[in-house]
Specification:
Elements (H helix, E strand, L loop, with lengths): L1 H13 L2 H34 L3 E3 L1 H5 L9 E3 L15 H12 L7 E6 L6 H11 L4 E6 L7 H15 L6 H16 L16 H21 L2 E6 L7 H14 L5 E7 L1 H10 L14 E4 L5 H18 L7 H12 L5 H18 L6 H13 L1 H9 L13 H4 L3 H11 L5
Parallel strand pairs: 1-2, 3-6, 3-7, 4-5, 5-6
């Protein structure tokens, strides 16, 4: 409106068509510039979204199937299929499968799959599940997803009974659940407060046994072998861990049911003895078969790590000026890693560093070495950073502080830093 009034004013008062045309052209140019700017912003946003780093599987990077000069990151998920078995666990899985297929327990049979964090327990279970026949049902329970004992019990109950099929029916399903909850959590009568440590008293055990006898009749109609896997038990707090073992041993100990419990035995034993004041032999009364996950071949991990780093370097189009030094550096680093998760995390750290530092032309071997130090000992990494002037040379043109520093003072400070060498 204001622009229209101004144009009329120019026409009446000054009778100047030139001014009016100039104003109109100027406005059109402004509008055009705004449109162009919006188009550029849209293009930048689109390109930035497109360049967001994709998360790849380590198998694809190892096999050279990743062709991306943008930032490459790896997911930490367990191996899902035998087709992507980088850990070479198929022979172990086959042996475990034979145990399960040829196991026909009258009562509950409990297997412990024991290994350190990152040793491949979940990958083994995934590959095992893929190989099972149709007459075997495997159900997986992740107890660490639940915040308290009641929600953990409810989730466990749902998994077990849904795995039994539709033989029970919804009415019986709810009836049994409420009965269990009343016995275990002390809700039988108002004011009754049975603790989780008292639910196996004689009266309660008799009720639980009666329920179990009824459920065993439903199980006999199922005609399928049921395997329940409970993974990451050692991630729970002490009360949840104890509840899981008691539920397995006392409550959900049905006929022809096989449990596979995955955990770090050293961590569980320590928790039982130091925090629960329970002898670690308690587990021996629950578990019938302990199976130790074999240690991953260190040469295998080294090969995976080195190959992935080389493929990342090729993706980023980086020239390596000293192949021998790079190989020796990676040999030294990856031989100190003992599981695939550590390898993946270090590869991600190195990938980010190489991509970000590419523009300043640092030596690849040095970047990899520094990232390994940062990953394995962050305090040492910071010390190296703070004392960098004693470790690397600098051009006095860029740092005048060093040019005028007295040699005697510098040498004395260096002796204090490297006291273990002097």
């Amino acid at each position: 409106m204001a622009i229209s009034l101004f144009l009329v004013y120019c026409l009446i008062v000054h009778n100047s068509w030139v001014v009016i045309i100039y104003i109109i052209v100027t406005l059109l140019l402004i509008v055009l510039l705004i449109v162009i700017r919006l188009m550029i912003i849209k293009k930048v946003i689109k390109e930035s979204v497109y360049k967001n780093p994709k998360i790849y599987n380590i198998y694809d990077l190892y096999k050279g199937n990743v062709h991306d000069n943008n930032l490459v990151l790896l997911e930490e998920n367990a191996i899902l299929s035998s087709k992507k078995d980088l850990l070479d666990v198929q022979l172990f899985v086959t042996s475990l499968k034979d145990i399960l297929i040829n196991c026909f327990p009258k009562e509950t049979y409990i297997i412990a799959l024991i290994g350190k964090w990152g040793c491949g327990k979940t990958s083994i279970i995934n590959i095992l599940e893929e190989s099972l026949e149709n007459n075997v049902v495997m159900a997986k329970f992740s107890p660490w997803k639940y915040n308290d004992k009641l929600s953990l019990f409810t989730g466990f109950y749902d998994l077990v009974f849904k795995s039994l099929g539709n033989n029970i029916g919804y009415v019986n399903y709810k009836k049994i659940f409420n009965k269990y909850k009343s016995i275990i959590f002390g809700l039988v009568k108002k004011g009754l407060n049975l603790s989780i440590d008292d639910f196996w008293e004689e009266e309660n055990v008799n009720d639980i046994n009666n329920i179990r006898d009824s459920i065993n009749e439903y199980i006999s109609l199922n005609k399928k072998k049921l395997i329940i896997v409970i993974d990451d038990i050692d991630r729970l707090d002490k009360n949840q861990i104890l509840l899981i073992f008691k539920l397995i041993k006392t409550v959900f100990n049905f006929d022809n049911l096989i449990y596979i419990l995955c955990f770090d035995e050293e961590r569980i034993n320590k928790l039982f003895e130091e925090e629960l004041n329970i002898d670690s032999c308690y587990l021996d009364k629950i578990i019938q078969n302990k199976i130790i996950v074999p240690k991953i071949n260190n040469n295998l991990l080294k090969d995976i790590g080195k190959t992935c780093i080389i493929n990342i370097i090729n993706n980023y189009n980086i020239n390596v000026y000293d192949d021998d030094r790079l190989n020796k550096t990676m040999d030294l680093i990856f031989k100190n890693l003992h599981n695939l998760r550590d390898v993946i995390r270090l590869i991600n750290s190195i990938s980010v560093a190489i991509k970000c530092l590419k523009v300043i032309n640092l030596d690849i071997s040095d970047i990899i070495s520094l990232e390994y130090i940062k990953y394995s000992d962050i305090n040492l990494y910071y010390q190296l950073s703070n004392k960098s002037k004693y470790l690397i040379s600098e051009d006095s043109y860029y740092n005048l502080e060093y040019e005028f520093e007295l040699p005697e003072k510098f040498n004395k400070e260096a002796e204090e830093v490297f006291w273990f060498v002097v």
